[in-house]
Amino acid sequence: MAALAGRTALVAGASSGLGAGFARLFAEAGANIVLGARRLDRVQALARELADAGAQSLAVAMDVTDETSVIEAFDRAEARFGTVNSIVANAGTACPGRSTEVPLAGVRKVIDTNLIGTYLVAREAARRLIASGSREREDGRIILIGSITAEQAHVGDAAYAASKAAIAHLGRQFAREWIRLGINVNIIQPGWIHTEINDAWYRSQLSGAAIAGLPRRRMQAASSLNDMVLYLASDRSQAVTGATFVIDDGQSL
Ligand code: NAD
Question: Most buried among 24, 89, 98, 151, by the most CB within 10 A?
């Protein structure tokens, strides 16, 4: 049986990069899939692609920094599929640069998106799971996307690294709060993967030396997260909560 058959999954920030990949993965694994993003045209196109491949999918407008937008996205998801029980809080943004130079507006945007946005998505998911009886079903699975920058000090984008460190502890807090309410919360910390978030850096002259300095001298493949994401989103991870998984192709070694 498909790993997520009978489940409804929601991916926040599904319009590009890792989020779009998770959505395709979940659809293949048999879940009903809700694609949340600000760029509705992109998730609508992805929903059509998934529907053509036989999946039940729904594109919803979702700005994770806006509480009302998050609530309305879950309303639409629930109206179509019922309670969402596999959730990936994946939306994220960066504001590269040295701390002495990055404008405060950039710092606030990073914290607002990565930390508050993750908080709002996980909280709304949990509220609805609890109201629908997850305590008895024990079916809630929430995955927070952190980063290895949570553990390592680099030059540049301190707010991003701090937000990802905060996400790791937020996940443990949520896991503890909801442990008897049938909701598991886990954190994945990926390494450097080429996506839109770092495309400008990847194409710049800075990236060559940085990539050559990584233990395997390469960026991580996005698909290397798939098995862990699928496991944590499924019934099989029943006993796993409050855990942080570094899946980084050895980049932090
Ligand atoms: P990406 O830029 O392709 O994806 C980020 C997505 O979040 C985009 O679709 C973007 O539109 C969305 N988003 C941003 N602000 C949002 C908002 N307010 N509301 C809704 N959606 C919003 O980059 P990605 O690499 O796929 O990033 C996905 C997640 O993975 C992020 O949390 C990122 O921090 C994390 N991550 C990425 C890497 C990497 O090297 N690519 C490494 C570790 C962690």
Answer: 89
